[in-house]
Amino acid sequence: NIEHDLELKYTVDDASTVWINGEFSGSSDNWRKTFTIKKKVKSGCHVIAIKGDDVMRVVSGLIASLKIDGKIVWVSGPDNNFLKVFGPADAPSNWHQFHFNDSLWGRAQKCSDRTIERHWGDSNSELLSEGATWVWYLSENQTSTCGGLQQAFFRISFTISN
Q1: What percent of the chain has pLDDT over 90?
Q2: Is 15 in contact with 52 (CB distance < 8 Å)?
Q3: Which range has the worst mean pLDDT, 51-55, 112-116, 128-132?
Q4: DSSP string, 118-145
Q5: Cα 53 off chain centre by
Q6: Angle of CA points 121, 34, 70, to nearest 5°
Q7: CA 35, CA 48: separation in Å to the nearest integer?
Q8: Is 88 in contact with 52 (CB distance < 8 Å)?
Q9: 156 CB-near residues (< 8 Å, 6+ apart)
Q10: Measured between alpha carbons, how far is 12 from 151 in angstroms, rounded to an integer?
Q11: What are the pLDDT digits (tens) for 7-63?
């Protein structure tokens, strides 16, 4: 197996905890700052799990990008199939583990309300310039405004070829 450089850039409004392949890898508590996690990984299948907490219960959002060996391979947005999301109820205790079955989880939705876009502004301009958009889950009672949606659980599954 060949070793690769993984780089996850992200932020969550308001706070987050991150696991890579079931191993705790970092946390954040300032949505105005972009956080970076760098890790060596081997070729094969991988899972990044991010628990997002909307602490203030006003605006919720995740924005992220993933690079492998310096090349962007994924950005957060509504148009990808390997970002799964669950919320607002607690996820099962093993949700962040590699072999957890997330097949019944939903797809992330773009946060599209103009008031919220003004709220975030260009505070994460590096991620925005890479094409990433703010996302969260879509609740039954909400549109994709991403307002006051409590906690969310994200899983990004991907494979690195040799």
Answers
A1: 56
A2: yes
A3: 112-116
A4: HHHTTTTHHHHHTT---EE---TT--TT
A5: 12
A6: 120
A7: 14
A8: no
A9: 47, 48, 49, 50, 64, 66, 74, 82, 83, 84
A10: 11
A11: 999 999 889 999 999 999 999 999 889 999 999 999 999 999 999 998 887 778 899
Residues 6+ apart with CB under 8 A from 62: 10, 11, 12, 13, 16, 50, 52, 76, 108, 134, 135, 136, 152, 154
Omega of the bond leading into 88 within 30 degrees of 0 (cis):
yes
> Residue 51: what residue type?
K
Give dist(CA 44, CA 112) in Å, integer.
34
Asked whether residue 116 carries a pLDDT value surpassing 70, the answer given is no
Q: Which residues are 19's β-sheet partners?
A: 24, 49
**22, HSE (Cβ side, Cα atoms, 13 Å):** 7
What length is written for the chain?
162
**What's the pLDDT score for residue 67?**
97
- How many Cα atoms within 13 Å fall on the side-chain side of residue 38? 3
Q: Fill in the amino acid letter for 149.
A: L
pTM of the model: 0.91
How many CB atoms neighbour CB 117 within 10 A? 13
| Bridge partners (DSSP) listed for residue 7 | 38, 67
Q: Which residue has the tokens 């925005």?
A: 128
